[in-house]
Input
Amino acid sequence: MTEFWEHKALTEMSAAEWEALCDGCGKCCLHKLIDEDADAVEEEVVFTDIACRLLETSTAQCSDYPNRLKHVPDCVVLSPDNLSDVYYMPESCAYRRLAEGRGLAAWHPLLNNGSRAALRKAGISAAGRCVSEHRYHGDLEDRIVTWPLFDKE
Output
């Protein structure tokens, strides 16, 4: 038997299937910058370790996911309708991986009985590696991350 993500296009998934694809890494909740030194044809998105105020930095989980848009109107809301914008998501993002035809990574919770332990062990999660925007008041350029934002497979 194949799993839903193996035989359905992203645009064919139910709301529950779509939500299940999120690995919970929290990297979409990190502040991002466009690298002005990058080629103008291909913008390079760089990530900082400064997180949205709603992100619980110790777990990389949103503290008010159902109501997040009320508090953070520009929160990332990835949907089948805006998949062309997936470039601003990290390379490890399941939505981006599937959109690019790469399948889920071995550490993804759907391949590990729902556990995020493999995700954390692989160094993919932002948990414990970021600071809330409430606690940092400096220049975002000083907080560009050097820990992995890419796939390890």
